[in-house]
Please model this.
Amino acid sequence: MLLYLTAWLGQFESAFSVFRYLTLRGIMAVLTALIISFLVGPAMIRRLTRYKIGQTVRDDGPQSHLSKAGTPTMGGALILVAVGIATLLWADLANGYVWVVLLVTLACGTIGLVDDYRKLVLKDSKGLASRYKFLGQSLVGLAAAGYLYAVATTPAETALLVPYLKEVSFQLGPWFILLAYLVIVGSSNAVNLTDGLDGLAVLPAVLVCGALAVFVYASGHVDFATYLKIPYVPGVGEVMVFCGALVGAGLGFLWFNTYPAQVFMGDVGALALGAALGTVAVIARQEVVLLIMGGVFVMETLSVMMQVVSFKLTGKRIFRMAPLHHHFELKGWPESRVIVRFWILTVILVLIGLASLKIR
Model:
């Protein structure tokens, strides 16, 4: 919205023309979402506390978690509010890619909101049935994948890139829809599984999204895309504004979610964050790089899968408890140590992913 306002004002004062630049609007989206989080966060936490919408804690988990019972949950709604407002204010609303990633994020957040509401407000321990949750995610993922396939104008937009290898890619054709669906839904669930400790999921999501902002900006700029030998996708650079909004909203939420947390994000935040990362990676044609940069999310997901398969086949557990962060807690690592070490690992993996821009 403000893009159109500043464009109109630019007719009378040339200084407003600076808002045409994507990088500035990306920065403004970060700051806007951050300020919204700081302003809305305390009131939201007070309201969640007043209505006793608090966390329930498993009694078979780490004993240190018992003190977290009752901590306000569903705080991920703060992220959705900040991302939505900042994106609508600073992005070009005529850009289809912006609407795809924003709507996917809000839709998956709504699915998580229904699940949280049933568990925390209606006191239904099962929440939204898994099959309905997966069905909802699948419909969102397929809709986004189908749209992106339909609007693709060049073969590169539906190809699977292999990072670190010069000009190596695989044309997917209609199989692109399946890949995009798997990335969006898989990423959504992976972040949700990781969200088990204070700040454990949100900062890695912020770091990965910040790196993906670099990829979409480069992919949307013909000179940078040509120089870096990545697909040039006209208009995709505008998604950088959404990425900036998510980074700002995530940092703002972390202000309240850092150890010891004043609020938890719940499924409303975790499912939305994961879906956002997956959608941006698909738009930027960097699915494999997302797998690398989001290595923490991958490890957490694999630990659950391995635990389930091992127990069903052999009756034995590989880990003391899954997801992986609980395993380290039960080994004696303090919660803060697990969190910070997973953050450090994410920084390393993000840098490795960004290196793929030049190592080819």
